[in-house]
């Protein structure tokens, strides 16, 4: 799959215990790296309340925090030094944005409207960009708290709460899709203490990818589409 689709595929696979077990099989067999899952997707695996699944998750990822990690300040300082040593390439950062931030955010008209539109918010300085990328649980804006829903038939969903009525619950999930669950099918609905945005982004990107992503996010306006190659003969 192209990079922009992989997070959505992982979201689907973490949605049901049987699918999650198959995903973990692949990770244990080393055919898929464990880093393809961000911390929120790992938390969704634990939401199934399945002891066997929980044991396998713990064996791979260890104990998963349910609150902000104060050590994130050290990560920000390290990544700031990384960028100071060598600036990134904003054009190479565009596809990195599409497969990470673009799942939930809009920038220069590209992406999905789940979280805030970051064209005009959160990119004022390098420190603001690094904090929002690497320590998203420092400040969670009102209305952007994450929610986890478990259905009576064992499906787990996480997203922003759009509607909670006597008839149905609606969550907006990564990719911008709205998941509608009849109230009678909701087993549990819980608000998370952490942001929907994963705080371990640096673990899922190479240093070069991170540099390029930051360079793209620091642009004041979007990049023009690359020119089409001229075919032989000039036509």
- The ordered string of helix (H) and strand (E) elements is HHHHHHEEHEEEEEHH
Query: How many beta-strand elements?
Result: 7
Question: On the 0-100 scale, what is the average pLDDT?
Answer: 86
In this structure, how is the largest beta sheet organized?
5 strands, antiparallel
Helix content: 25-40%
Instruction: Write down the CATH class of the largest domain.
Output: Mainly Alpha
Strand order, sheet with most strands: 6-5-4-3-7
Number of domains: 3
Low-confidence stretches: 225-232
Oligomer: single chain
Structural Rg = 19 Å
Structural class: alpha+beta
CATH superfamily of the largest domain: Cytochrome c-like domain
Determine the CATH topology of the largest domain.
Answer: Cytochrome Bc1 Complex, Chain D, domain 2
CATH architecture of the largest domain: Orthogonal Bundle
Fold blueprint:
Elements: H1 6-13, H2 17-28, H3 39-46, H4 51-61, H5 72-85, H6 90-99, E1 106-107, E2 110-111, H7 126-134, E3 145-151, E4 156-164, E5 168-172, E6 178-182, E7 186-195, H8 201-204, H9 207-217
Antiparallel strand pairs: 1-2, 3-4, 3-7, 4-5, 5-6
Helix pairs in contact: 2-4, 5-7, 6-9
């Amino acid at each position: 799959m192209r990079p922009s689709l992989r997070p959505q595929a992982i979201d689907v696979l973490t949605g049901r215990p049987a699918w999650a077990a198959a995903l973990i099989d692949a990770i244990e067999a080393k055919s898929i790296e464990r880093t393809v899952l961000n911390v929120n997707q790992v938390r969704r695996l634990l939401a199934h309340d399945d002891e066997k699944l929980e044991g396998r998750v713990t064996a791979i990822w260890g104990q998963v925090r349910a609150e902000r990690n104060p050590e994130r300040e050290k990560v920000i300082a390290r990544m700031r030094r990384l960028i100071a040593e060598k600036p990134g390439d904003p054009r190479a950062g565009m596809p990195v944005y599409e497969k990470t931030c673009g799942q939930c955010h809009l920038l220069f008209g590209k992406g999905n409207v789940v979280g805030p539109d970051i064209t005009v918010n959160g990119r004022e300085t390098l420190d603001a960009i690094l904090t929002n990328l690497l320590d998203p649980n420092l400040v969670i804006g009102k209305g952007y708290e994450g929610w986890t829903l478990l259905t009576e038939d064992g499906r787990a969903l996480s997203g922003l709460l759009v509607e909670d009525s006597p008839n149905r619950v609606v969550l907006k999930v990564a990719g911008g899709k709205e998941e509608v669950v009849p109230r009678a099918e909701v087993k549990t609905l819980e608000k998370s203490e952490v942001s929907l945005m994963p705080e371990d982004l640096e673990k899922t990107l190479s240093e070069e990818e991170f540099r390029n992503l930051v360079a793209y996010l620091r642009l004041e306006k979007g990049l023009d589409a690359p020119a089409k190659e001229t075919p032989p003969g000039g036509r």
